[in-house]
Design a protein that fits this description.
Layout: H1 2-11, E1 51-58, E2 73-79, H2 84-95, E3 102-106, E4 109-110, H3 117-125, E5 132-138
Parallel strand pairs: 1-5
Antiparallel strand pairs: 1-2, 3-4, 3-5
InterPro entries: RAWUL (IPR032443), Ubiquitin-like_domsf (IPR029071)
GO molecular function, one term: promoter-specific chromatin binding
Protein name: PCGF1 protein
Amino acid sequence: EEKRIREFYQSRGLDRVTQPSGDDTVGGDPMGLPYSTFDHSRAHYFRYDEHVSLCLEKLRPPQPPNPLCPSQQKYVRCSVRAQIRHLRRVLCHRLGLSLQHVQILFDNEPLPDHMTMKQLWLSRWFGKPAPLLLHYSIKDKRR
């Protein structure tokens, strides 16, 4: 079994961390695992998560580029646990609009509010270079 475990780690180029046996639990718990110095009480904060880079562009009908009108691109870096609803709320706050007027799209397809950035990245952007390109549209207020 030890040989199989060693081969597993070597095939992946990893160094195997050996755990002390159950007899010598000095500095560890009865299971033989060493104590961690990481403070788990604050681990739920987003700063310990993976991050994803996004580029948010306002969706516009196809038109020739106008050098006098700069594109409205916003670059965002957020936690992979963030959801589309969180991004919409921040965008609505920045634009001074209510939630029903802003929609976030990927390839002209509206994204569900409950989708996380990690789900979005893995399902639609995996293998492509960062940043993930998303569009937002502002619905007409009269409707």
